[in-house]
Task: inverse folding
């Protein structure tokens, strides 16, 4: 909020607690508090995981943590993983169930064994999630660059079988936010298809999903192949999903977006670097982490704030 | 999305005669009991007492944040249902709905009674209402949180994202709840300055930010699909929206969204009016 201008008034007698009754306005409770306790699942890559949210703001700002305050008493299932493609989100969601075949002998202590997937999907980033291979539950971990499956019971024998993510069951019934495909954005058809599959998998596809659009870094200047690809994906998704699509690029590159309430203290438009960035069609540096490819805490604050408002306007809260 | 329409104007009632009957009781909020098993992590801490509330409702643990993100899920006790507060021995001056410093013919008396009876902004211990006293930003947050029934907040389940939260749990939760609903935001230091007076400017912005999106969901306000454009001039748009939506009582329509401190009286009238408008709006 804007800095105050006045000195506080002298302290008044303490207020008296109210009578023993439900507090507040029944009408306000009905309007402002969720009647149910639906969870919220977040799927996507590093932007969804707020990877550099600890930069630039006095305190780290991570979108999933902000949303935990919003969705309560529901639970936020934060499944954004940096460096992943849209196909990884589909795999984690349990919509793709490739055949997993053990490669070599398992670890004598943990039972962990490398597996090959068919269709093949190379692991990216620190991807790991609970899953089963055939009838054997455990965890699949791709963070080393090789898929390793570790059974929950180290003595279990892992044989070839379908890899099925356990996250699908965990998030059943949840609404979802999708921010996926930036890392394979040049494969626009794949990104659109994977996002659509995630959309269709929601309990009520037309109501239960918000899709966040992609945003341009300095590596995606106006006229570049990535800029054109993300613009194409954004345009198609805006057309498909209407009010369930949040145009993050517009939020972070328009004068009105950059003047939104939580960013007002930054005076983004007053900074010279902002106008250079906007001329290139990319997000201003003041909202970008030092690695130049992720949003910092201020960027996350703007996206989170926008997301919450859209969720409220859709009646999710 | 339904076509946005202006809310049906709700006429203000004539000033009420002094009451002699007890305040109308507010129906209790249905207990938001969980319908599925609780989740707890192996590392969950032992149960600790929740914020004291004189209710027999059971406390329950809930994990509020799970997943691949590098956040440890923390199971915390969360009170179920709305916050209940218990009045101590009521003073005679408040028991019959009057206040020592508010005349029986005061046009705003009904608003003060409503705010006191519903716990949104109770009278003071000495039986006065002090309508002329300035409201702090923390007081404003508390009143708005109570207005919404003081829903539970997982305040200890997530890292701090505001730098100067109030240390009193109820006030802290109010500020976090507003932050979680995109109705409160910090300055460059992520400070919300809860002890400073709430200006009319900030109060109008906060109330608008709280009500407008939810009313939009019910088709009672202009749908804000272009969020940024609507906020291009926050001060003008917020107060104008409150006025156009009928949320400003007639006694306050001349207000300007400036740095003048909001008073207890103004806040009570504002929320009383909001309650009337919300109650009259179709769900």
Result:
């Amino acid at each position: 909020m804007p800095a105050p201008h006045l000195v506080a008034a002298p302290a008044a007698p303490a207020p008296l607690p109210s009578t023993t009754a439900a507090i507040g306005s029944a009408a306000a409770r009905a309007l402002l508090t969720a009647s149910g306790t639906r969870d919220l699942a977040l799927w996507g890559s590093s932007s969804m995981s707020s990877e550099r949210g600890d930069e630039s703001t006095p305190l780290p700002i991570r979108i999933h943590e902000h949303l935990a305050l919003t969705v309560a008493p529901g639970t936020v299932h934060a499944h954004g993983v940096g460096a992943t493609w849209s196909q990884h989100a589909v795999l984690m969601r349990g919509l793709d169930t490739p055949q997993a075949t053990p490669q070599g002998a398992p670890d004598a202590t943990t039972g962990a064994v490398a597996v090959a997937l068919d269709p093949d999907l190379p692991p990216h980033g620190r991807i790991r999630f609970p899953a089963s291979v055939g009838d054997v539950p455990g965890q699949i971990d791709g963070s080393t660059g090789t898929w390793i499956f570790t059974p929950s019971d180290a003595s279990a024998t892992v044989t070839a079988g379908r890899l099925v993510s356990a996250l699908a069951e965990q998030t059943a019934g949840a609404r979802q936010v999708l921010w996926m495909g930036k890392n394979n954005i040049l494969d626009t058809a794949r990104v659109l298809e994977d996002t659509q599959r995630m959309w269709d998998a929601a309990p009520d596809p037309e109501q239960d999903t918000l899709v966040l659009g992609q945003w341009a870094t300095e590596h995606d200047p106006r006229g570049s192949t990535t800029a054109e690809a993300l613009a194409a994906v954004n345009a198609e998704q805006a057309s498909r999903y209407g009010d369930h699509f949040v145009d993050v690029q517009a939020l972070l590159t328009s004068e009105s977006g950059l003047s939104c309430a939580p960013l007002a203290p930054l005076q983004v438009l007053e900074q010279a670097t902002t106008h250079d960035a906007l001329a290139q069609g990319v997000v201003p540096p003041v909202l970008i982490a030092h690695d130049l490819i992720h949003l910092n805490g201020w960027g996350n604050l703007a996206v989170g704030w926008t997301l919450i408002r859209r969720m409220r306007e859709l009646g999710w809260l | 999305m339904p076509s946005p329409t202006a809310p049906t104007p709700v006429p203000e009632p004539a000033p009420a005669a002094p009451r002699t009957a007890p305040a109308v009781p507010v129906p209790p909020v249905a207990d938001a009991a969980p319908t599925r098993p609780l989740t707890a992590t192996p590392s969950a801490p032992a149960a600790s007492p929740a914020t004291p509330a004189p209710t027999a409702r059971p406390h329950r643990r809930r994990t509020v944040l799970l997943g691949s993100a590098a956040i440890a899920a923390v199971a915390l006790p969360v009170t179920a249902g709305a916050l209940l507060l218990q009045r101590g021995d009521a003073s005679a001056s408040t028991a019959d709905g009057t206040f020592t410093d508010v005349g029986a013919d005061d046009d705003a008396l009904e608003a003060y009674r409503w705010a006191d009876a519903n716990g949104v902004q109770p009278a003071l211990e000495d039986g006065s209402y002090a309508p002329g006293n300035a409201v702090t930003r923390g007081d404003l947050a508390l009143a708005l949180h109570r207005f919404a029934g003081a829903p539970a907040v997982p305040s200890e389940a997530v890292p701090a994202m505001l730098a100067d939260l109030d240390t009193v749990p109820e006030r802290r939760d109010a500020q976090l709840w507003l932050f979680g609903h995109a109705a409160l935001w910090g300055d460059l230091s992520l400070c919300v300055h809860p002890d400073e007076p709430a200006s009319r400017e900030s109060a109008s912005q906060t109330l608008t930010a709280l009500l407008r999106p939810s009313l939009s969901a019910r088709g009672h306000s202009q749908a804000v699909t272009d969020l940024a454009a609507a906020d291009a001039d926050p001060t003008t748009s917020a107060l104008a929206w409150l006025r156009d939506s009928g949320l400003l009582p007639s006694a306050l329509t001349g207000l300007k969204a400036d740095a003048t401190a909001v008073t207890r009286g103004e806040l009570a009238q504002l929320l009383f009016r909001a309650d009337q408008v919300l109650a009259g709006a179709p769900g």
User: Anything to note?
Assistant: Chain A has two domains: 37-91+171-313, 96-163. The CA atoms of residues 8 and 14 of chain A lie 15 Å apart.
